[in-house]
Amino acid sequence: MLVMKGLAAGGLAAAAAWVIASGPAWTAVARTGAVPAPTPSATGACLPTAGSGADSGIPAIIATRDDLPGHTEPAIAVSRHDPRDLLGASEFVTPGQNPRLVPGAFSSSDGGRTWHDYGPLPLPPGYSHGDDVSAGFAGRAGFVAAEAYPAAGGSSVFVWRTTDGGRHFSAPANVFTAPTGALNTDHPWLAVTSGHGVVVAWNWGDALMFSRSADEGVTFGAPQRISAPDDLHPNLAVVVPGPQDTISVMYQAIGSTSPGKGSTGGGPTTKVVTSVDGGLTFGQPYPLPPGTGYTFAAQPFASSLPTIAADPVTGTLYVAMSLSLLPGAPRSVVVYRSDDGGRSWSPAVTAGAQDPRADEFQPSLTVDEAGTVYVSYLSYAAGRVNSVLVASANRAASFGAPVQLGQPFDPACGLIGVWKVSPWFGDYQGLTSGHGHVYAVWADTGTGRPEIAFAAVRARGAQRAGRP
Question: Model's pTM, two decimal places?
Fold first, then answer.
C-alpha cells in the first residue's frame, strides 16, 4: 500500500476528518455500497485490495452496476437547484470479441448515496459507437455530450438531455456532423454558463470549434472557430464556466503554421481562450508556460490530460497537469493560476505528494463557492493505483496533505483492449463541487473490471471573507 509524503501510514485511517492547509475540516458523506474486494478477471488474477472503506480514507461506492465489461473516462455534475441530483457519464465498453466504447450515464437523486445506472445512451440510427463524454446541468435539465461514429464512417457531436434526473434521456441533439469524407471530430466538452447557456467545444481538423444553445440544450447554433488561425490540430478541449457568463476553453495545439515557427511550431502548446459574453465572441488564445499538455507516464495505461477550473466568484483560472519536475523522474501533479483570463500564469505549484516511487497522473480540478481549490488525481506505485484528493484554501499557493479516496486497486485487473489502445484506462477522471460538497468519480478496477467509483466529502468551514 502506497504511503505518500505528508501522510503517515496510520494517517489514512483518520482521513475522514482531514484538514487542508489554512482551510476547513472535511468529512466523508455517509453512503452505502462500498467498493467490494476484487475478483479474478479474464486477464489474470488481481492483486488483493488493501484495507477497506472504513480504514483507508474516504469511503467510495460503485456508481455503475451493469453486466458490461468496463467503464472509463467519467464525468460528474451536480444540479445547482438540488444538491441531491447528481449526473454522471462515462465511456461504457460493449461486450463481445470486438469491444467498442459507447457513451453512457448514471445518476443519483440522494446526493450520491445510491445510483441508477442508465447504461449506454441511445445512439441515432446508423451510429455504432462513441466516446469522450462530459456532463452538466442547466436549471433542472441535465446533459451529456459525446462524439459518435456511424458504422459507414464519419463522426458527429451530440448532446443528450434528461429532465428527470437521468432516468430517461431524449434523442440526442446534433451539434455538428463532419461532412462526408472530411476529418472526424474529436474530444467534445460540454459546460453550462452562469446564465444557463449550454456550450460545447470540440476539434475538427485544424480548428477548435464552439457552439452554444440558448434553449437549454434543445438546439445548438452554428459553430464558430475559436482557436488561433495558425494553430495546427488544436484539440483536447476542456470548457469551464466562470462568473457573469464568462467561458474559458483550454486546448492543446501541436504547433503553428506561422512564418518562422516551422511546421510544428516547437511542439505541443496548451492554450486558453476566453469569452466574456456567454460564447458569442472569443478573444485571443494565450499559451500556458512551455512543457504543459498531454503526457504519458511510465505505465502504458497512464496517459494524462491537463484540466482547468474557474473560481465561480472571482473568475480566477486554475490549470492542473502531470509532468516530470526533474529529467527522468516520475510525474507529479502541478497547478498554475491566472488572474487575468489566461493572459499570464503563476509559476507551477506542486499539488501532489511528490513520492519518488509514484507516478501521479490524470488530475481533475474544481473550485467551490468558498474559493477552495481541489485537485484529485491518480497515483501509481508498487502495482497499485490510489485515487487521491488534495485542497488549497490560499488560491493554490500551497496544498494540504493528500487524502485517499476509496481503496488502492490493481490497474491491470480487468483492463481490456478496445479500438483505441490496449489496455485502455482512459485519459481523464471527474471532479466537481457545489452546495458545500466535493464529488469525485474515477475508473476503478477493485471489483475485477473497470467500474466508475464515486466519493464525496463535505465542508464544515465558513465561507471565505467577502463572498456571498
Answer: 0.88
